Amino acid sequence: MKIYVGIDIAKLNHFAAAISSDGEIILEPFKFTNDADGFQLLVSKLESFDKNSIIIGLESTAHYGDNLVRYLVAEFYQVCVLNPIKTCQMRKNNIRKTKTDKVDTYVIAKTLMMQDNLRFVSFFDLDMMDLKALGRFRQKTIKQRTRLKIQLTTYVVRYARKFNTFSNPVCISTLSMLY
């Protein structure tokens, strides 16, 4: 018997619930914090089950779930990050059109259960997440540097008219003339 754990991710607190492959509710929705203590609470609730029978799913939500995913993968749980479009389809099939964190945990767990082939997060995926984050940070830093160079050029050309004749008024040798 498989156990499907659905986790609704938020900035400060997450909600989790578990259902069996028969659709029986095993864990009622409960709240846990987005920190080490909260992660340990989640794992303590799952300890009574066979780790190999547990499949944990959560929606891809910016970076709020990253630390939880890392923690669970390090604890050797099978973790699947779901596309929110899939859970949205399942939510539409729900008779009650309510959207609460507690209801979403079941929707996520049921979406997990209905998937034909699940792709679990690996240590390689975690490394790729880190590389993507570093790449995004680098791109952002380059854009900031470019914007600052343009601003500096504008001020140098505007207030030091003799620098208008230089092809690059913000190179080191040109700026050293200001002193």
UniProtKB/TrEMBL annotation:
PANTHER family: TRANSPOSASE FOR INSERTION SEQUENCE ELEMENT IS1111A (PTHR33055), TRANSPOSASE-RELATED (PTHR33055:SF15). This is Transposase. GO terms for molecular function: DNA binding; transposase activity. It holds the Pfam family DEDD_Tnp_IS110. Residues 5-158 form the Transposase IS110-like N-terminal domain. One of its GO terms (biological process) is DNA transposition. Coiled coil: none annotated. It comes from Dorea formicigenerans.
